[in-house]
Amino acid sequence: MAVRAGGPLRRALTFHIPLTLVVVATLFPFYWMAITAIRPDTELYNVRINPFFTLHPTLQHFRDLFARTMFGRWAWNTFFIATVSTALSLACGLLAGYALARLKFRWAAPLGTMIFITYLVPPTLLFIPLGNVVTTFGIADTPWALILTYPTFLIPFCTWLLMGYFRTIPREIEDCARIDGASRLQAMVRIAFPLAIPGILSAGIFAFTLSWNEFLYALVFLSSPQQKTIPIGVFTELVRGDVYYWGPLMAGALLGSIPVAIVYSFFVEHYVAALTGAVKG
Amino acid sequence: MADHPRHPIRQDGAASVAVAPAPVTLALPQARVRRSLGQLLEREHVLAGVLLAPTLLILLVFIAYPFAIGLWLAVTDKVVGRPGNFIGLENFRVNLNDAIFLRAFQNTFVYTFIATFLKLVLGMAAALLLNHHFRFKRIVRAGMLLPWIIPTVLSTLAWQWMFDATFSVFNWMLMHSGIISKRILWLGDGVLAMGCLIAVNVWRGMPFFAITLLAGLQTVNPDLHEAAEIDGANAWKRFWRVTLPLIKPIMLVVVLFSMIATFADFQLIYVLTRGGPYSSTHVFGTYAYEIAMRAAKLGQGASISLTLFPFLLVVIVFQLWYIRKND
After folding, report:
1. A-chain residues within 8 Å CB-CB of B41?
2. Does the A63-280 domain belong in CATH 1.10.8.60?
3. CA distances, B92 to each of A108, B68, B288, B301, B307 (Å)
């Protein structure tokens, strides 16, 4: 339902002005992050100076960030954990999603429901006992604590999304291959999986951003500075008690945001498909 | 699947291994083993079991098992470094007599309902705006999702700096435009701080509403609008009588998803206020963390986060029922 334009004034009042306000409100915090990251401390902590721009941009905060913290290491940890847990979840979700969408077996409906329920279980409910489990397995304070626990919310999401995707692929295509002599497994791997690549990409992008952004499990399961991810590192190592190092903090926030923003910008359509698919199922 | 021989007794995995596959051909023993494995996987329930095994294993070990441990911890006096003893519902009794817990309880509901309501209203408005044809629409839509994409902790830190007691940019703007003469301590008062938390949550969650509702709006047939317009319905009426009923299903699902996430929120509140000032902005998540991780009382903490569960369950059951009904 595309809405037709009224008069120019009316259109400005009901469309251009509200849209501009929404866009400004949405993006202002990122502008603030960026401008803080390049303003020198003498300007940051001086209320008399106009804070919206600077005539003396500096990279000092970025230098401080890398000199005083292990930011490079955190970036690598975040990337490694997000990539491996996404790959693991995609593999599991692909197989499970196919089984639930395509195969006829007695437990299909209850298992589908169960996976949907786990999809809605928030980390807040489980982080305390999960901390015990992670310690028992001897993986606390290692990347594996997160690589193995992130799939608890990534797999249900991937399964749910890919299940919906497999349902949109006509069953007849696989049936044709089966008549030509392909086994059930071959039809799945050679016919259904390649057709599901757009869905896999959507689920992958979404899962990657989710694990890049995760906070609570990383906060609870990791303790040594060299093991931390970007969200945890920036938050715990650049805030000491009540002292906030705003310049390096915002530099770290900016650098931690850019990789996901880039990944996202390349796959906006896939991301949106995942977002809307995730709720529609 | 007409072409696969259905076994009279449908059994799962191991049991059916013993039962020989039906169409046995003349084959050498070794080849027969490989063949029978292949034939076993032809059976849909066997294949389904194999495909689902990794997922079920991970969910069992990292969700079901910890959930059971959580139930046990909640009825013990477990603290870090000491084994816990069973104490029945003592932890829950302590919670109910704890003013901070009761405040957190109330805050969780206030935070969830106000934020979800505002996200719905503003998200709907943004979706209606995005549903126009205009230049740079794709860029605007992509940009609008940024608060949702960027790590919440990092963007919340930017908000914290914007709410800074001394250097708040909002104070700078308000003072320079003459609206206020004294600095506002945005996070210095329980009620105001809760307002700020809700504002940041709405800022972060609104794009999710806008984009999913936009997807809903795009499925509405424009002919219906034209018909209503011919019948004399104005834009407002068309929205209430035509658009809203049609996108109600997706709207409800988005609201339920968002409610669960907001209800169980941790990071935004923990980063912005850490439950302060004076423990006035705690929610279940942050208070459970405070008690379990900082005070090392794991049992007590588990009982606090478990309090989330019945409320989550109500929403989840309702959502399942609603999905079933629509299928």
Report:
1. 183-185
2. no
3. 37, 17, 13, 10, 9
